[in-house]
Amino acid sequence: MRSGSYITRPNRTLQIYACVFLVVLYVPVLFIPLFSFNDSIYVRFPLQGFTTNWYVDLMGRDAVWDAMWNSVRVGVCVAVISTVLGVLTARAITRNRIPGQNAVVAFVMLPLVIPGIIFGVALLVLLSRLGIPLSLYTVALGHLIVCMPFSVATLLPRFEGMDGSMEEASADLGENGWWTFWRVTFPIVLPGIVASLLLTFIVSFDEFIMAFFLSSTETTLPIYIWSQLRFPREFPSVLALSSIILTVSFVLVFIALWIGRTGLIEKDHPRPPEAPKS
Amino acid sequence: MTAAPARHIRARGGLHGALHRSKAFRGYALLSPALVVLFVGVVVPFLILLMMSFWTRQGFDFDTTMTTLNYARAVDEPIFGTFLLRSFWVSGIATVATVLLCYPMAYYVAFHVHRNKMLWIILITLPFWTSYLLRVFAWRVILGYEGVINASLLSMGFIEKPLAFLLYSQTAVIITLAHAWAAFAILPLYVSLEKIDRSLLEAAADLGDGPVRRFLRVTLPLSLPGVIAATFLIFIPTTGDYITPALLGGPDGAMIGNLIQLQFGAVNNWPMGAALSIILTLWIAAIALVFVFLTRRAERVVA
């Protein structure tokens, strides 16, 4: 089967392309931590020497800690609420015959595609007409809209991949709906819930546009960074803060994606195993 | 992160209509919290935005008589059209570049990676989840007047003085957008390539097609739905992007999102900003309709 092996035969050019692609994808972001340890106020080569001063400087600032605390509070609330809503939505869509459910899913996913600025200004207009002052609560509301598509997208495959007969068995054995959910459904979809919590937390933690329009004097970390970008003197400490945020994000997202994907892999690829190469 | 519509509804033959209705009712009850949040957070704000777009500014307050003045201004004054066109132009080029560059990568993972496929997908999509602001900021570090590229070129003696056009230009915006949205393009491309039945390729080979013809006549047409999805998944959000043009665009690279922000910020003409947001939304809706139409066509051609 020479023709069959052609399709799967290693292609040197593509391999090199893939490696270059990954390097180009990651390297720009890596310049941020690189220069955050550079002993110079200017971002330029050659590097001047290793220093952790910018990090030490950062730790001494109350504004940074306040912004960090605000971001964490908003992130945790948004993660919990959007994941609960995501569980309810995914469960409703996969286990009940709902007229117009495709429209519902499309509606939930809208914020993923529509530019954030439109949702941001629309919420701003609503809040100002209602006379509601901007606060961390309004930021959280904005983040909730942004995060719901991610939690639904993470949880839907989990619920879809679940064997419905397990729930039926539980019901047959006399459990009511509530206990069936906690003792059968919940453990099965738990990896999806953990992944959703982590991902929505990170999306909220990193979110800028909604916070930009909907925050008041209490800022989140991205807004703090934005406000510091104006001052060239602050550039190295912004780099240090950005490095911390990037590291936290990368670690959490990697864990989330790994947890979220395990157990789903076989279902994603129902292809039979590759025939042995000739 | 393509919105996979749920199709997994177990067929339950022999159920009575009443039971059906109660299942649908329970479904809606479960959905209701999410729907309420979306109603309060999306539908109501949008309706008020629509209403405000017909108002006018009056000092620090609004004149709430309905008028189409803002829309007339948006059509008459060339600056608005210029910004809109430029947004479409910039994100159009960024989109084409992203899809072209991501296609081989998605192809590689779909056809040539056999073990640890998921690890590859995670590696590719990982940067997408991290702060958009910081990824854009990284490009400022690279493209800046004393940034990585200029400094390297200077030290190697290729240029006498830093290239000023790198930062604060449309080029900078296009490069950054293409880089920042790569993961968004990879996923739909990968999904459509992964779905292709390998036996079709074998059949084409058996019937005498070479690698190039096989790609052009089998793989490419079958992956078209993914190409179309990727194109629109990038084009629509990037047209309204605010951060990238604000950080890297300069005067030439400013886009419609920056103009909208100005109306809500420095210019302080909220009704005009509302009208511009509505116009952008209408354009996006029109483009989305074209997208739906093209997908239907592509699916029919494929089938």
Explained architecture:
The complex is a heterodimer of chains A (278) and B (303). In chain A, α3 crosses α12, α5 (101-113) crosses α7 (136-160) and α8 runs antiparallel to α9. Chain A starts with a helix and ends in a 10-residue tail after the last helix. Chain A has a single domain (62-263), classed as MetI-like fold. Chain A has 278 residues and is mostly helical. The longest helix of chain A is centred in the N-terminal third of the chain and has 34 residues, at 62-95. Chain A is 76% helix and 0% strand. Chain A has helices at 2-8, 12-36, 53-59, 62-95, 101-113, 116-130, 136-160, 164-172, 177-206, 209-214, 221-228, 235-261, 265-268. Chain A is built from 13 helices and no strands. With 303 residues, chain B is mainly α. Chain B folds into 2 domains: 20-52, no CATH class; 80-302, MetI-like (MetI-like fold, Orthogonal Bundle), CATH 1.10.3720. Helix content of chain B is 75%, strand content 2%. Chain B contains 13 helices and 2 strands. Chain B has a two-stranded antiparallel ribbon. In chain B, a hairpin with a 2-residue loop joins β1 and β2. In chain B, α3 crosses α10, α4 (117-129) packs antiparallel against α8 (182-195) and α12 (256-264) packs antiparallel against α13. Chain B starts with 16 loop residues before the first helix and ends with a helix. The model of chain B is unreliable at 1-14 (pLDDT under 50). Chains A and B meet through α1, α2, α4, α5 and α6 of A and α1, α3, α4, α5 and α6 of B.
CATH-defined topology of the largest domain in chain B = MetI-like fold
- Alpha-carbon distance between the two ends of chain B: 24 Å
Helix content of chain A: over 70%
CATH class term of the largest domain in chain B: Mainly Alpha
**Average pLDDT score of chain B:** 86
Task: Provide the CATH top-level class of chain A.
Answer: Mainly Alpha
Shape designation of chain A? globular
Q: How large a portion of the residues of chain B is in β-strands, by DSSP E? A: under 5%
**Low-pLDDT windows of residues of chain A:** 265-278
Q: What gross morphology of chain B would you assign?
A: globular
